[in-house]
Amino acid sequence: MRALSFPVFQLRPQPSLTRIPGAGFMEMGTGVRAGTGAPMGVAESSVSLNYTLWRHPDDHSDPRNEIELDPGLRRSIDEEPPWGRPAWLIERAQLLKYPMLWEAVRTSWQASPDPERHSLSQQLVDHANHVLRNRFREDLGLPDLPSEGDDGGWEAKTSTARDAVVTVDGQNRSGVQIDTDPFVYAVGFRVDEHVVCTVVVPRDSLPLIDLAVTTFQ
Prior knowledge:
Layout: E1 9-11, E2 17-19, E3 24-29, E4 42-53, H1 71-78, H2 87-94, E5 100-110, H3 120-135, H4 137-140, E6 162-168, E7 171-178, E8 184-190, E9 195-202, E10 213-215
Antiparallel strand pairs: 1-10, 2-4, 3-4, 4-5, 5-9, 6-7, 7-8, 8-9
C-alpha cells in the first residue's frame, strides 16, 4: 500500500473492530505494447480492507463473540496438523471463529474515469454486489457456483442510491448510500476526480460500529 500513488481509507479505529492484517488488491492494465507483451500501464487499481467484528469488545475471549461453526471447520481451526503451522497462520485461522466484515472498505482509483461506469453511485453498487455475491449466496438462494439460472434480481441498483453524509477524518463530506438491501448497507464518497471510497457492511453489524472513515495512509 505504501507504494500506491493515491490515499487509502479505513473505518475509524474503534473497540468493536480489528483490521485484519493485509489487504485485497485489484489492478487493470491499459493493454500491452505491440510486439513486446509488456504492460503499457495501470488503468484502474483498488485496495480492500477486512475487519474482525467483536460483538462484546470489552473481552475478546468472550464466547459470545464467536459465530456458529460446523464441527469439521472448528477442528481444522483448533487442531494442529502433524506438519505444524507457523504462528501467523495459527493466529489467522483463529479469526475464522469470529464475524468478518469482508472487503468492507474499498478505495478505488482510475487513471481516466468514465463518467458513467466510474460514477460514485455505480462504484458503490459494484462494491455492494461484490459483497452480496461472495458472502450472501445462501441468503440470496444462489447456487454455490455462478449459473445461467441467476436472473440478477437480487442485485443492488444505482436507482436506489440516495444522498448521504460521510464523516471523513472528522469532517462531514457529501456522499451516497444504499439503504434498501436487506443484507448489506453501503455508503461512499468521492475523494477527488480519480479516487472513490466505498464502505459495505452487513446490515446486522450496523448497531455495533461507527461508519466514520479515516485516512489509513
